[in-house]
Amino acid sequence: MTAKATTSATWEQDVLQAEGPVLVDFWAAWCGPCRMVAPVLDEIQSEHPDKITVLKLNVDENPDLAMKYQITSIPAMKVFNKGEVETTIIGAKPKFALEKDLAAYIG
After folding, report:
1. What is 30-45 written as a DSSP string?
2. Any idea where the Thioredoxin domain is (predicted)?
């Protein structure tokens, strides 16, 4: 299972009203580190489908949300829970580091 995309149009339903934690990967097609972290996030999603939902948001296609959540560098990942940002992770990291950052959700 790979992370599905969310957009400005589906944001409310996909992220803010979601049950349980949602990790949103703010990315862009031209971003090399974003492409490096994507398969790692897919692995985390497939290994913990009942604990966390991983969604991708293209910042070029959804600049309103990138601005609202103050995304100034990508990749940036934010974990939302009950509509609120609980955790922010900036930059590409290896799987073990991401799992450590997400331990409160997938541990």
Report:
1. T-HHHHHHHHHHHHHH
2. 1-107
The verdict on whether 31 is a catalytic residue reads yes
Catalytic residue among 3, 24, 34, 76: 34
pTM: 0.96
Phi, psi for 90 (deg, rounded to 5) = -110, 130
Phi and psi, residue 84, nearest 5°: -115, 145
Q: What is the pLDDT along the chain (107 residues), one digit of tens a residue?
A: 578 999 999 999 999 999 999 999 999 999 999 999 999 999 999 999 999 999 999 999 999 999 999 999 999 999 999 999 999 999 999 999 999 999 999 98
Question: What is the edge-to-edge ordering of all strands in the sheet holding 53-58?
Answer: 4-5, 53-58, 22-27, 76-81, 84-90
Given the residues 15, 22, 31, 40, select the one marked as catalytic: 31
